[in-house]
Design goal:
Structural class: mainly alpha
Number of strands: 0
Family: Belongs to the transposase mutator family.
GO molecular function, one term: DNA binding
Function: Required for the transposition of the insertion element.
Largest sheet: none
Distance between the termini: 14 Å
Strand content: under 5%
Number of domains: 1
Shape: flat
InterPro entries: Transposase_mutator
Low-confidence stretches: none
Radius of gyration: 19 Å
Helix content: 55-70%
Mean pLDDT: 82
Pfam family, one: Transposase_mut
């Protein structure tokens, strides 16, 4: 259907099918949080805000140091936050060594 008008897009989507649906390998309880890009967009916005303040960087390494420090700061804040993005209980589903995650939470079928 898509291939008639946009054959290149169809090819790209077919080649990236495993990456696009990677969230389906996780327990269903994680899906809503995993497929959202809000935390990533928030981080990018904070990096942009900080780089706009500096304006011009003397070299690429200086930009990487600033962006890296923003990421480290965000990581530290997430570590001590009262409200976790994914609860410890739901993360425990990923760290089960003696049984597979599908035994605990069967993977649901993707529907269009």
């Amino acid at each position: 259907m898509l291939g008639r008008q946009f054959p290149k897009v169809e090819t790209m989507l077919r080649e990236a099918a495993a990456d696009i649906t990677a969230f389906a390998d996780f327990p269903v309880a994680h899906w809503k949080k995993i497929w959202s890009t809000n935390p990533l967009e928030r981080l990018n916005k904070e990096i942009k805000r900080r780089t706009d303040v500096v304006g011009v960087f003397p070299n690429p390494a200086a930009l990487l140091r600033l962006a890296g420090s923003v990421l480290v700061e965000a990581h530290d804040e997430w570590q001590v936050a009262d409200k976790r993005y994914l609860s410890e209980t739901s993360l425990a589903l990923l760290d089960v060594s003696d049984q597979s995650a599908e035994t605990i939470a069967p993977t649901a079928a993707l529907t269009a």
